[in-house]
# Entry
Amino acid sequence: MFNDFRTEGESPAYIQLKVYIETLIMQGVMPLHHKLPSTRELAGLLGVSRTTVISAYEALERTGWIEAVKGRGNFVSRAVAHLEEPPGMIDWKERLGRRALLSEEMDLMKHGIKWEKGMIAFTSIAPDEKLFDMGGVKRAFLDRMALEGDVLLNYGYAQGYRPLMQYLMSYMRGKGVEAKGKDILITNGFTEGFDLVLTAIGRRTGRILCENPTHQTAIKIMKLHGFEPVGVRMEQDGMDMEELRRVLGEGGFDLAYLTPSYHNPTGIVTSPEKRMELLRLLGEHEVPVVEDGFNEELRYSGAHAAPLIACAGTGNSVAYIGSFSKILFPGIRVGWIVADGGLIGYLESLKRARTIHTSTLDQALLFQYLHNGNFERYLKRARTEYKRKYELAIRGCREHIPMKSMSGEGGLHVFVELDESLDARSVLEECRARGVVFTPGDIFFTDGGGRHTMRIGFSRVPEERIEEGLRIIGGVVNKQLKASGR
Amino acid sequence: MFNDFRTEGESPAYIQLKVYIETLIMQGVMPLHHKLPSTRELAGLLGVSRTTVISAYEALERTGWIEAVKGRGNFVSRAVAHLEEPPGMIDWKERLGRRALLSEEMDLMKHGIKWEKGMIAFTSIAPDEKLFDMGGVKRAFLDRMALEGDVLLNYGYAQGYRPLMQYLMSYMRGKGVEAKGKDILITNGFTEGFDLVLTAIGRRTGRILCENPTHQTAIKIMKLHGFEPVGVRMEQDGMDMEELRRVLGEGGFDLAYLTPSYHNPTGIVTSPEKRMELLRLLGEHEVPVVEDGFNEELRYSGAHAAPLIACAGTGNSVAYIGSFSKILFPGIRVGWIVADGGLIGYLESLKRARTIHTSTLDQALLFQYLHNGNFERYLKRARTEYKRKYELAIRGCREHIPMKSMSGEGGLHVFVELDESLDARSVLEECRARGVVFTPGDIFFTDGGGRHTMRIGFSRVPEERIEEGLRIIGGVVNKQLKASGR
# Structure
């Protein structure tokens, strides 16, 4: 006993000693009522200070493991009662429902593209953390904590932290949204927002209209909720309207899920005319819309189109889900839904039943950061940086990759369509061997198509490596084109 | 135009001017290509500095509302295109599914007890924010941000922030949990943890075994997932084992949901013997267990029983959901599940599909706070404070409220059973008129019972008002007893 105790790592010695003794008790080495060595004795035995032993004993007493008896010493006061025979093992997998199994199967972090450090990874569209404005974040935290730290740390409201709600409503008003009759709900990012809406919506036809290709996480969430995503082909200015009309004519939809700006994965911005036409057609067929405001802020040129929810004016058919994750800080999970006030009321109750509320601390930090006027400054800087990378990516793709077409008017990625004889996954395999990875486009398609497409995310690739990476991809594409006889 | 512009509130004048002009554009008062007044002119007109106007114009230009044409001035560059005729209104309520409607119906924040400021509210069991250790929180934030602020603000992992996961696993080991074969998932508090498990579990019998009464939020979540909670009567040392045997004999259960320590609402601590017996019986019937670790830390006396997951030893049938919300900071939504490693893998994928991950900033803040050694110090202080209130509450109830029985061995509330002729809701009504509210017990019962019970939460009632409040309740109970002829 005690002869294998060694302190290691950075946690305080007394904590390590406490854990060590706990283990001895748990393993039955020190049974109930066993007397512990005196603090002086143990300090000598272990070669640690007596204070360390005293602190460890005190901590063990506080957590109920030992008991100090005046004048007699310290005694083990807890027997860890295990069942003599642990209950039979549960086969958890066999107990799980469809949704758990499917979520694992569709989990790209588990079954997606793997890469190693040092590779050029065009797989991410997360923001570049080197751009983060740490000073602004610290200031915002300290400012808000000084004002109402106790409020931030206690329970908040499911709908959200009021100053942030007000800020974002006014931000949405600034995008042209008619606020009357609408309300806002703060969520744990886009993902929770979309999940809440799909939890709320009843299944009638079980079909959701969307762009094809579309956001892979959205496809996953739709399928997990038992909805079938029905995609409509994308053209350079948005959905193919002929196909949309045909699909709408073929049967009802419970919902449409649309990303009109910097669409993921194609980077396409739907034109103002198509936005209007979309709203008109979906209105005629009484299909409500979930608008994904994804990256709307990452506009590199002057052109800007109002979001669908603004185009709909006083209409209530569009629910807009927003997030600054791809621009500000994805690590703090804050997004929002602006929609019909009645709908928001139900989503609020669902949210309360699911996560009580989004971290008030995060909401307050974000609010104060915005309120301090950091957002526009930061956005300006981020746009400049990303624009430079964007232009490098566009130029690099054009110069080096033989392709059928390319899209991407902004955002953090471009989308490349190769010759149809090629398989992007086989291109990927060769590229990986040469130290470059990207996202094969097929995961974004609702109909099993897109095997010859790829998404090139550039936000986290260092500027000086963008061209290098694209040249390597181009080399592999050329090689495989030759092999296929084109 | 411009004559109704006034700055108000604390947001910078240029932002207010920007919003004002946006509104003029949105409302069509300033149409496309309309020329804005010069900055000098507008500054004079509004009585603001020229810098304010210049900043507002710059912000409008950045967000695409106006365009500066060299030598000619500023022009409206965006027409807010609304549909001439907004699409038809959607009747959202009619589009919603059972779950959204039920979550609203069962939403206590919407349909629960209302009270006004100044009343003595025994309704809350949230921690007392006056106890919050703000200095420790600030230090933890600054410490961690200095170490790896950029990592905290970018995307993290669904399973959790590694240092926190490790800390909590070792914390659970300290409670006697055998870690081998188990793993941990960080969640947005208990609520998300329980919701994830119920999302994952397939419905076979659709029945969940639980204590009667039990946590109202848990009842809500079970019902929202289409499970029927089947409650077993509580005795002073845990479930009535006879009833448990009978109920288990009557038919299968998909799960058991149990709160062995400081059970909500009764405050009962299940005895070590009953814990073992529970595990044995549930094991025989192959019923897996979700253990709610609720308030396990709020032990005011020496007695302490190991959690079920520790008692189960190497068995894998217990999934433990923990949270420090009622002790540390509920505003940052961090909880955890420790369970069979295979199960955690599926829950992780579900979590990723639902909220990506829990705020890394919050996890890191909590980790650093714990790592800095604040927890035990804080817990000691909180226990001392709450224990005083607990004793006041126990004494006050005994002295002033005529009752059949009372329970509560710790935690932040006690549970009172009145004479069965009484209706706690009618007691509540009279009490509210006298400035005191509490939680009527019926909401915690799975079988419509408990109409003569009440939960008295004392954590947020100032010490000096606890007795006063209980005396008022006692007065009303006495009055209603007399009226009922007892």
About this structure: The mean pLDDT of chain B is 91. Residues 374-400 of chain B form the longest helix (27 residues). Residues 238 and 270 of chain B are 4 Å apart (CA to CA). The longest strand of chain B covers residues 228-235.
